[in-house]
Amino acid sequence: MSEKKIIQERLLQENRRAFLKKSALGIGGLALSSLAGCSFFSKNENGILTQTNGTIGTKGILENLHHNAKVKRVIYLFQSGGPSQLELFDYKPLLNKRRGEDLPESIRNGQRLTGMTSGQDKFPLVGSLFNFNQHGTNGTWMSDLLPYTSKIVDDLCIIKSMYTEAINHDPAVTFFQTGSQQPGRPCIGSWMSYGLGSENDNLPAFTVLLSRGTGRPNGQPLYTRLWGNGFLHSQHQGVQFRAAKDPVLYLNDPEGMTKMGKRAMLDMLAELNEHHYNDYGDPETQGRISQYEMAYRMQTSVPEVMDTSNEPDYVYKMYGADAKIPGTYAANCLLARKLAEQDVRFIQLYHMGWDQHDNLPGAIEKQAKDVDQASAALVEDLKQRGLLEDTLVIWGGEFGRTNYSQGILTDTNYGRDHHPRCFTMWLAGGGVKPGLVYGETDDFGYNITQNPVHVHDFQATLLHLMGIDHEKLTYKYQGRRFRLTDVEGHIVKDILA
Questions:
Q1: Cα–Cα distance between 189 and 264 in angstroms, integer?
Q2: CB burial readout 242-259, b (16+ within 10 A) else e
Q3: Helix (H) or strand (E) holding 211
Q4: Is CATH 1.10.3470 correct for 58-495?
Q5: By the 8 A CB rule, do 373 and 319 touch?
């Protein structure tokens, strides 16, 4: 098509109908930009709309919190693979007394099993080979595998009565992270970014750190969709920080590009995207502009926040020797504290290696050593800096482990299969009662006897602590209003401070 023809076609589009259409898109774009964080107007103390020069961070979809928030940020220490509650938190001496006996059917009560143990003729009960002792003001039972965590037990809210429907890893992890066992939904961090936005202009609202433990280093993998935005705009997906020369993939400029050249390119790209948005009205176009600008600002902020070389020796001593090794759980816990200081809204750590179907005693001892000191240090470090009071720290996996041995039980060795009926998590920080043990399981450590907490209850309570009513934070997609807790979820009020 000739240049003259292009101009003629363009002029034909500039009629009254096109003008009205594009004016509407402009108003919509203004509203969308406001939601994306470009606050052109705000209310002053008298409630009058006034022009603003911009605010720190980006806004979420919520104009106001549904109620007063207890915390400003979350650090979620997700222990992938299913830590055995029977070796760590849930002391069951009866299992040692009845070691080797078959699990009574009255206790199992027809529960479905995974394909890894459903073919067993017997289910021999097995207690922990590790000792438990009482700690803290209330004499909370804790395993000797967790000496550092035992010292901060008065700061922890331990929930022994978690349960889920999922029995295998992928649907179970997906359920915890997205509220659905089926992939495709936004994860918790994306919902937080969508609802609340960010408090930092130069870092994303939702960051992800990965580490692999020594317990079972080649165990269950994790998929990037676990920190994906699902059907929300792509600007809400988690940004993974890696232990590498380039912490964020594709963030650095190619060789030969200057800062001024990069700025000019982004300005031109933004102009082209604005034209595209005016023509088609696709909100994802605005999200793309926002992501480019965030990446530009992150070129300076990410190297700074990832650099721990200026941390004093006593901090490294708190977190342990591994804190100086990039990519380890301890190093990631230290980075999580630095990200919290920068007001990153949702900091997700995934630590792999807890899937111990065999050789559990040897594997869990290594795995617990990987995380014990650093987890406790993170809580103590936040506390000494005055950050714990408005930060929520979460520690836990996707399900627990069975009270019977998977495979052959010997005097020194055994394994445990997946167990969704009861398992343990702990919380620390703002909004939850410290020194509380909530919920109980039976003497066999198989069923919940008091105060069950479902995955959706956990998610509803988490949103509540952030000032969000889980039933009101929704997104309309394919004709239905979706939310993190689907159609369930109750706030666990008994654990709230």
A1: 32
A2: ebeeebbeeeeeeeeeee
A3: strand 206-212
A4: no
A5: yes
Helical pair 283-306 and 16-36, crossing angle rounded to 10 deg = 30
Chain-centroid distance, C-alpha 310: 27
What's this model's pTM, rounded to 2 decimal places?
0.83
Q: What is the DSSP letter of 116?
A: T
* DSSP classification of residue 351: E
Domain positions in the chain: 3-51, 58-495
101-127: pLDDT as tens digits: 999 999 999 888 999 998 999 999 999
User: Hey, what are 121's tokens?
Assistant: 């003729």
**Measured between alpha carbons, how far is 207 from 74 in angstroms, rounded to an integer?**
11
Which tokens go with 335? 């980075």
Asked if 162 and 396 count as a contact pair (C-beta separation under 8 A), the reply is yes
User: What stretch of H or E contains 423?
Assistant: strand 423-429
User: Tokens 């001496």, residue?
Assistant: 93
Residue 59, SS3 per DSSP: strand
Please give the distance of CA 134 from its chain centroid, rounded to a whole number. Answer: 30
Cα pseudo-dihedral 59, 60, 66, 69, rounded to 10: -70
Dump pLDDT digits (tens) for 17-49: 555 554 544 444 444 444 444 443 343 443 333
